[in-house]
């Protein structure tokens, strides 16, 4: 019996006895040939595992793959290869990994985006992962839509000014959030050796319909004598302004010192929220924690709000839906699966791991299950609203007359009476 060594993810794969004994020397050889130094961490973990090559052969259905078998992709998507029998109908693709994005490399960092052209279901949101080295500057700019930021590594300096001349300079560290409303100018600089942050914009077609107004671009496209008149400076003042500066460039770390006679954006006017220092709420269901950051604790966030969720091993973000719209997700760490149910017998199960983004359509029913026995699942739920809202399936059933629920579901009223009336949010794994 020839076995392929695999990553931990694989333990989640359910494979039939037939597949487990499969002889697939060609698939193994071609996979091994494609292994590069970039896969080394994966392969090191993999040596400890003896999982078989996956095959689409669940429940006596399907057959062995002959061609086009891409083992690493199949291992990451066991529920695509062998969907649970409860999946049905047509649900379009709802996931994208940043590793597939076009990588925009600059001196001092990179940007990679997820746009509606990458993930057609993502009409409400575009996203970008940005990486800055120490001192690197994401150049001064504004947008014609709102920007929501979440630091995932390191510390960045953010500096912004509003139309009344109030300003704010903050050091946003991993786990912190910012919100730059449409039209409000800002700049971001990396302060540690490596810094990374996730940006979310409230239009999926960002590159086609929206724009970034970079300051160098404007100065380079204005007659120098107008610049001189505007700033009251000699006309050759900007002759050395880099053409173009680029989105990101190397720089020297600022001490962030600047004062405004018109005051600062503090308190409820703040565009920065130190979510890293916020205490997480324990889910009543005992399965993890969440931090809710919306206009109720971060008033500036009127169009993009989020919940930062941690799910313990094998625990479940309970079955629920969001009455106020579409959900966009970012899987930061772990292994999860979710079935998205669109109504009218359409349901599809997706598997998620580090760097995956996803979109769950408006009002669709779903759960998110941590598939790992050992690792915490960390992910973000993002909404196009001013508040985070969800409806719990269990709570709905528990607070409806039990004799009605019992008749509809053909269960006894004692089953209904045992349902938790309090929203569980994340249900702990059975002991
Ligand atoms: C942050 O970046 C550093 C340097 O690249 C890396 O060693 C570390 O693992 C990263 N941390 C996280 C949480 O990604
Ligand atoms: C910050 O840096 C500027 C420019 O380098 C300098 O003029 C200023 O004195 C510094 N401020 C503080 C508080 O260190
Ligand atoms: C800040 O905003 C919150 C939520 O909107 C509100 O309850 C609170 O009173 C505000 N605080 C101040 C000082 O305005
Ligand atoms: C409810 O379940 C019982 C027991 O399995 C079954 O006999 C009955 O036909 C079911 N009722 C309906 C309406 O499906
Ligand atoms: C690794 C893995 O899949 N572990 C568990 C994840 O959760 C499901 C459902 O609770 C279990 O069946 C798996 O064994």
From TrEMBL:
Residues 1-19 form the signal peptide. The active site is at 381 (proton donor). GO terms for molecular function: isomerase activity; metal ion binding. Gene3D superfamilies: Jelly Rolls (2.60.120.10). One of its GO terms (biological process) is oxalate metabolic process. Binds 2 manganese ions per subunit. SUPFAM superfamilies: RmlC-like cupins (SSF51182). Its cofactor is Mn(2+). PANTHER family: OXALATE-BINDING PROTEIN, SLL1358 PROTEIN. NCBIfam families: bicupin_oxalic (TIGR03404). This is Thermophilic glucose-6-phosphate isomerase. It comes from Rhizodiscina lignyota. The lineage of its organism: Eukaryota, Fungi, Dikarya, Ascomycota, Pezizomycotina.
